[in-house]
Amino acid sequence: MEQGWWSARPTRVATVSELGGAPRPLAPGLGPGSRVVVVTGSYGAGHDAAAREIALRLRGIGCAVDTYDVVDLLPARTGRLLKVAYLAQLRHLPGSWEVTLRRLQPGSRTYRLTRQLVGLAGHRLLRAAADADLVVSTHPFASQALGRLRVDGDLRCPVVTYLTDASVHPLWVHPGVDLHLAQHDVAADEARRWGCRTRVVEPLVPVPTRRTSVDRRDLGLPEGRPLAVLVGGSLGIGELEEAAIDLLGTGRVTPVVVCGRNQRLRERLAARPGIVALGWRDDLPDLFAVASVVVQNAGGFMSLEAMASGVPLLSYRPIPGHGRANAEALERAGLVPFVRRPGELPAAVDHALTAATSRLPSGAPDLVALLTGAAARVPAGVA
């Protein structure tokens, strides 16, 4: 299977034993009385959404769950500075983000420096995880810091990384992390190629909750053509404006753009006839219920919500870097078609309107079932 765009020939990652230390098996019998620490990273809403869902499910079986943000765990406001720089890069120099990720290869100076930098969260992570039975990470920075603590023998409880992306950049994995959980087989294969232990689990997305009956008028949306809902994450990043114009130009749909917190984008699109611009929404299941197709550019949590709703889904004009990698991975997994050129868009929309549906990956164990019943018994063949 082809690796993600960042490396056709991945550098081998050292094993746990080579780095000095073999983590104990994962905690058996997780349940009432267990304490779990979940560490997210508020660099994107998808990491936080996955953390909330993990906490909700584990509290449902009686675990005490505390959630921390790696942004706040890095000292001297380092986490907040990194967050500001990351968001500014995506907004103003999106192409440079892809270059940055290409440079973050194991063995490179940039990779080593990044791991050292995020490792500064280690002291606060140790305090947060005191007496914990399990730590779960939903962000690469947290996973790197936690993996280092496990290898050094400072953190005695097991660590699990939940991979929120559809593709796996090497910064996501660390040989000191006991287990990496992927949403589908393509992501799991990529993670294994970087040398980590991996299982596929059922994607963490809330069961869609929407009104029993909802129509366009309830949501203030126009009648007429089928609706194509465009999503670009909570920050409305990427070529959403260009994608909306392209969709309008097909003559087949009315573009409805979820701009999130990007007020400038919303104002620009609101001035364009034929395009509906929305701000932050907490009723996406209702919005997806009246949509005929959803178009995504990041492969994040909103994509999972769309798949859970069953509405046809397309990847188009993905953001550089992880957005493009996720689009390619979702297509290889047979989940979401990737429309690479504007000339392909009319046919793709026609297919979505007439024949397509979307679905979440199925057949994998639920995360809670894995952690409570099989967490300490990773089957043979898991690499």
Automatic annotation (TrEMBL):
Belongs to the glycosyltransferase 28 family. It comes from the Bacteria. This is Galactosyldiacylglycerol synthase. One of its GO terms (biological process) is glycolipid biosynthetic process. Residues 62-203 form the Diacylglycerol glucosyltransferase N-terminal domain. It comes from Nocardioides iriomotensis. The keyword Phosphoprotein does not apply. InterPro entries: Diacylglyc_glucosyltr_N, Glycosyltransf_28_UgtP. Keywords: Glycosyltransferase, Transferase. GO terms for molecular function: hexosyltransferase activity. GO terms for cellular component: membrane.
